[in-house]
Amino acid sequence: MTTAYDNYLIKIFVCVIGLICVFFLVFLDSKFHFDKNLIELKKTVNSAQRHWNVFFGQGHVYESGGLKHLEDFRKLEGIIEPNTAVFADIATSYYMASSLPVYVRNVNRHHGRYKSYEWGSLLSSNIACYIDVPNNLKHFKEFLSYEETRASAKKIAPIRYLIINVDVYNVNFKYDCLSQTRRAMLEVVDSFAKLVYEGKTLQVYRLRTAPVYSY
Amino acid sequence: MPIFFHSEAHLWIAYTLFFNGLLLNRLFSERSSQYECLMRPFEAQVIMSFALSLGLNGVVLVVLDQLALPFSYARNVLFLISGFLLLYTAWKKNLLNWRPQFNLLALPLYFVMFVVLFYNGGMIDQVSDAWWHMSLANKIGLAGSLTLEQGHLTGISDRYYPPLWHGNLALISEISDQLLPALWNAFTAWGGALKLMAYYLFGLGLFKDKKIALLGAVMFALLPGLGNSYMRVSAWPSHISYIIWFFSLYVILHFLDVVNSKENTFISYCRASFQYLGVVVVLGFLLLLIIFLHQFELLLFVCVFCVYFIGGSVRRCFDLEASNATYVNHAFFIMLYRLLLVGLIVTSIIVLINKQLKIGEYDYWLVLSFPLFIFFALLAADFLVNNHRKISQSIIIVVMVVLFISIDYQHFASLFRPELELPRSGSHEHPVMSIGWFGMQLVLPGWHLQLREGLLWSGVVAGIVSFYLAVSKRSPEWIFVSANIVFTWFLCTSPYFYQWLTDVLQYHSVWRFAILSFHQLAIAAFIVCLVRRLIMLIEVRSV
Predict the structure, then answer these.
(1) B258 vs B219, residue with greater confidence
(2) From A23, A49, A59, residue closest to B123, measured CB to CB
(3) CB burial of residue B384 (10 Å; 0-12, 13-18, 19+)
């Protein structure tokens, strides 16, 4: 037989246990906001840091978020011909498209990489990554001249610039073939493009086949 | 990096996204007592100021676009509007009468979140969709037009995207000369704090309890949610839309509370509602913003109440007395609920006819007839609830059994044991493949799509707790929460339902409906319930 006092104690016990369980659950589910190691772990597997974390500083955003190029972009506003297209690694392409009056070709799959079939196949074949191989260089140059005709026919922005980002701290570059093999591009780029701007990390080349543009 | 990076961007955000809205808000508060009552909490004032600024900037952009003037002209226009509003409010002494209701415990929460996000920054350190949005905003600003002829990224024509948020970003960028990555990064802190405020208001509107609302906001900041609580992506258009969505839920819940219809008829409720036209206008304005921000939240808004009405109807079937006190039992809402069901039945029939299925495609026949059966059964149950209660209850039980049968239990188990996961149909974003009873392939949302981390374990516990409290407590708020959580679980585990919704909406991310699992609020309300119960027990003993 349970007495009224026993019932009372059971009720209190249930409430206390319930509260402890819920607080423990909240603790378990929320401790990742205070986990310093998780930031580095996410970086190594290229996983997005969507939630806040008390140890995540602006340094990460500055290094890998294109903010360090903002000064370069200010200068490029007066150098780059508006409404033209640029070719660069994926991250730099997005940085440019978001800050300057230019279009880009190298974008993520779900942002229409394959809408321009020819560019999609060129980028997938990694020809631009291993451009120091003579056949690849020849193919790339042919592609650029073909692109000029195609852009004119389809009335889309013609490609005029090639940009090499030599930054070594941006984690996005680790997963991009074009960034990883930029040395190969630097070796041959002078044969088909002319340097028009050199910043700390950004090197902007204008294609030699492009019509002259008065800056 | 300096300590106060992007301080100029912060100042411009404060001006363009709040200042004019705040002045307009003061004007409206003086003009309408209903509006003033609705906007009493400090959070409501801040979010309404934000919403009004978004809308005002949108109107300015449309005018400039139509006149073919560059967006940089907006600077003078906005300064003129500010000057006029300042003079008018000074003349009316509106600003001196500004006395919002502060929840002093909530203010440090917003401040801390702002500071944390100020240092965390926006999620631009990855090449995510944020850059796609910034590119769109950049091209809108450069073109001086909200409707671009060319695709903004590659130059090849692109799909339509609601342009209000991008237009606002373009406007700030044009008038402040700040580059978009800096603005995006700076706004993340504002967006995070606004989202917390909006969630607080939603909790306040639903539970009418400041403690639950505050704890709900704390849980929203702490617990991993289902996409909407990712704080570092607070500058994305979907998240701006979430802010307005939560706020619109607060507005409609406030409206449902204040409208007092003496007679239990459809017409009398319409008449009573007409007296609160100011609140209806605010709601209409917020829904219009959602349409031009992200659109999907409009669907969420309708779905929340549709599911709530279903919950109310089920509760009415089993316990007439319990739901008598709630507005879902009013003739107006019963009529609305039935109309919604009729609409869903008609939609199901149209989809069934349009699909032109062949005889052997049994699973697809089931996909299309399964929701039709559910909606029809719910409608029948609701019609029979007063005169044939037993039949009505039996129908609901049959519906529940059918729903449980339709679940893919391997998929459900894979939530807890990832090695049981069903095969994926394509890339990471694509749904997983479930095999129907007749061997055909159906789709389900993979738990990896931002669902597992949100549902394990707080989502699971919140589901159990809210269902128990909805059954045991006789309150509409728990029916609201539990009905939406139950809906979420069926959506994520029933391939027939998920496939149907995917087909009807033609939308690739139907799993986003799982946002309707308001588990942070459920956990918060449960904690407050337990603490109050404990205090009551201790007080009873001491007496």
Answers:
(1) B219
(2) A49
(3) middle
Tokens at B146, concatenated = 């909200």
Confidence bin at B286 (pLDDT 50/70/90): very high
Spell out which residues of chain B touch residue A66, defining contact as CB-CB under 8 Å. 124, 181
pLDDT tens across B330-375, in order? 788 888 899 999 999 999 999 888 888 888 788 888 998 888 999 9
Q: Mapping DSSP to helix (H, G, I), strand (E, B) and coil, where does residue A107 land?
A: coil
Residue B327: C-alpha distances to residues A176, B80, B316, B472 (Å):
57, 45, 12, 19
Please name every residue paired with A198 in a beta bridge, in sequence order, or none if there are none: A203
Query: B127 CB near a chain A CB, below 8 Å?
Result: yes
Cα-Cα-Cα-Cα torsion B249, B254, B255, B258, nearest 10 degrees, comes to: 170
- Asked if A15's CB is within 8 angstroms of B179's CB, the reply is no
pTM (2 d.p.): 0.94
Mean pLDDT of chain B: 89
d(CA B181, CA A92): 13
Q: Give the orientation angle of helix B389-405 with respect to helix B362-384, to 10 degrees.
A: 160
* DSSP assigned state of B230: -
* Helix pair angle (A134-154, A117-124), 10° resolution: 160
Strands (E), B208-331: none
Of A46, A48, A52, the CB nearest to B120: A52
Residues 6+ apart with CB under 8 A from A41: A47
Asked if B479 and B470 count as a contact pair (C-beta separation under 8 A), the reply is yes
Question: What proportions of chain A, in percent to the nearest 5, are helix, strand and coil?
Answer: 55, 10, 35
Dist. CA A56–CA A38, nearest whole Å:
10
Question: Which residue of A52, A74, A148 is the best one to mutate when testing the B interface, meaning the one whose CB has the most B CBs within 10 A?
Answer: A52
- Mutation site, A29, A113, A165, interface B, largest B CB count within 10 A: A29
Contact B138 A99 (CB under 8 A): yes
Chain B, residues 513-532, CB within 8 A of chain A, namely: 523, 526-527, 530-531
For residues B404, B503, B347, B241, the Cα torsion angle rounded to the nearest 10 degrees is 90
B230: closest chain A residue by CA: A51
* Residue the block writes with tokens 């839309």: B241
Longest Cα separation, chain B: 76
d(CA B43, CA B50): 11
Distance between CA atoms of residues B312 and B334, nearest Å: 9
User: Please, are residues B20 and B85 in contact by the beta-carbon 8 Å criterion?
Assistant: yes
CA B220 to mean position of chain CA atoms: 13
Q: How far is CA B416 from CA B410, B411, B412, B457, in A?
A: 10, 9, 8, 10
Question: How far is residue B96 from each of residues B88, B379, B420, B478, measured CA to CA in Å?
Answer: 13, 53, 63, 40
For residue B155, what is the DSSP state? S
What would the 3-class secondary structure string for B446-502 be? Answer: CCCCCCHHHHHHHHHHHHHHHHHHHHHCCCHHHHHHHHHHHHHHHHHHCHHHHHHHH
- Of the candidates A29, A85, A109, which has its C-beta nearest B457's C-beta? A29
Cite the DSSP H helix spans in B177-264: 180-207, 210-222, 237-258
Please name every residue paired with B66 in a beta bridge, in sequence order, or none if there are none: none
ipTM of predicted complex: 0.93
Q: Which residue has the tokens 């039980």?
A: B397
pLDDT digits (tens, 9 = 90+) for A137-163: 888 888 888 888 888 888 888 889 999
* CA B379 – CA B86 distance, rounded (Å): 54
State the pLDDT at residue A208: 84
What is the per-residue DSSP string for B30-42?
HH-HHHHHHT-BH
In sequence order, the 6+-apart residues with CB closer than 8 A to the CB of A109 are B427
**Amino acid at position A105, single letter:** R
Query: Using CA atoms, how far apart are residues B148 and B158, in angstroms rounded to an integer?
Result: 9
Q: CA quadruple B310, B316, B318, B319: dihedral positive or negative?
A: positive
